[in-house]
Amino acid sequence: MIQFSHVNKFYGSYQALVDVNATVNKGEVVVVCGPSGSGKSTLIRTVNRLEPIQSGQVLFDGQNIHADLKSTELNRLRARIGFVFQNFNLFPHLSVLENIMLSPVRVNAIKRFDASQTAMRLLDRVGLAHKAKAYPAQLSGGQQQRVAIARALAMEPPVMLFDEPTSSLDPEMVGEVLAVIRSLAADGMTMMCVTHEMNFARDVADCVWFMDAGKILEIGAPADFFSNPQHPRAQRFLSDLHVR
Amino acid sequence: MKGFDLLAVLTHPQFSQMLLSGMKMTLIIALGSWILAMSLGFILLVIRMLPLKAADQAVAAYVSYHRNVPTLVQLMLWYFGIANILPNGLQAWLGEHNGEAIFAIVGLGLCQAAYFSEDLRSGFRSIPPGQDEAARALGHSYLGAMAYVLLPQAFRHALPALINHTVSLFKNSSLAMAIGVAELTHAVKEVENLSFRVFEAYLIATSIYLACSLLLMAIGAWLSRDPATMEAS
Amino acid sequence: MLSNMIAIIEDNWLLLLIGQYPNGPLGGIISTLILSVLGIVLAFPLSVLIALARLSRWKLLNWPATALVYIVRGVPLLMLILWVYFLVPLLIGDSVPGFVTMLCTLVIYEGAFLSEIVRGGIIALPTGQMDAARALGHSQFGAMRYVILPQALYNMMPSILSQFVSTIKETTLGYVINVPELTFAASQLNNRLLTKPFEIFAILAIVYFIVCWSLSELANQLEKRIIKQRLGEDQTGMGSLQHGSPQTQGAT
Fold this sequence. Notes:
The complex is a heterotrimer. By secondary structure, chain A is an alpha/beta fold.
């Protein structure tokens, strides 16, 4: 469903991604982990081209999203890739319901009534139907992130990307957000998730990618990766985390 | 209208002389009122820092008046109004010593002082309180902390606003024309009337104004180019 | 002196209010306010276009917009008035009233200054807002229209109001080309009475002060309210711009 091949990315002379090759299959949950600054967030942001790359390809549904696309084609592809940010990035001038309805109505030309029905159903799913009329600033971080997930789901994407979805949350709010992501995984959603939550990775992931210095150093099933990491860098990373 | 010919104005002895003296007057007014405004701005700032509520309110009223009344009206009040209620001896002296220009400098200077003092004040307010405490903890006196730690930072914070207001002071020097000062805009109108070369005259004046303003902006950008200036200033 | 001023106002309040209307053109403070409101209202859409052009990566848009802003920032308003006074009749082949000349000048001048405010408001928004809008599939235009501009313009309301105060103050320059407005009316009055210049120009200053001070205060209050909302944003790590929504219960 998502395929990276020979992806290289530079910030000036600094190479943020080094010849990345990997595949996310349909229905698969991939967790990307690694130390800070290893290129995880950069990698996930290349999937919907929030970050441009200098060489290589990122295929989504067989279509190279970094090809020379018309902007309308790019927008159409992006609309089919759900993306959840570390900082939620809800639109502060819109209510929760309007946040979720905006893109279905303006991008996918869904009727307002249908969009609001869908939005309410999704809010119910993330347990926030009672906050539909609230504004983002009136919500806790965990609630905002659940709204952000509902907003992404409203576009009915076949794949969801999570960029450190719990990193800016207070510890007591991490659980409620992970619970929503778990339920999506249980429904068979294809997902790619950058996270530091190793217990979550062990429980939910079908596949773990370990990154350092812009390279994917190890790809494995969570059971193997967590009990028996191959790469020395991954061994050190895990022992530092005390999760072995 | 005649064909476009810049040189017809620039090389004409009378016209070029008029433009030159107009430019000189513009610079005198701009520089004179800038010096007045900056000095008074500092004084207002110091008064405002006194632990006296009345002093604070008086300066606040001063600032409010000068920021909420159009500059042109302030100039007219000085030149047509206040000039008229001065003692006769002083009126006569002003009449002999280019009173228009003096009123322009005083009017523009007093007005811009309000802006400058506010710029400096917000510069001071943007310094975290820890800076003063740190300087005092290191054994600096009040004046020492002010001179080496607080003023340089305040000045740096205030710099963009000070530059903007310097540019607008320079542009406002053209308002002196309305009270009969023979500065650049005034000279241009004269040249236009005598030569009928409107386009050329305007183009020359506009270029001079633009060049000076851009120069001021460039100096401002250069002064605030990197944090190293903090120590230098 | 004060009794003189009161007497002048009693005798001439109509002139200061509406100029010589209906025996002549509408003038006085009504004309000043109409000129200012029209100026800022017409300058506003222009300023948004200039701001977007300056933010554009397309040089053909970016360059002229940048040049326009720098020229307007660097040239005295009076000089600009003279240009418009000279050029507009040449362009349309007919003379235009001073009011129209002044309005055209104000639209250009305020358009450029407002565009800097609008541009600043757009730049000040967190980049995540644009990222989120683009990630949801909005076009650059759609993201601007539905996500970025509504927030930027709301945040910029106090600055826009301050710019309106500046516009009122700038209409006084119309006096130089005999636009019938408040300063012109005062000057007419001065020419008629001859003996009370201080009183007349003091009245003029007081009237401007009352109008501009009230609006400036309004801008300050508005700014305080918006800053308060923005501080709420920092606590939750997210922006907050309730449009007078009812306070629902806060964070759990």
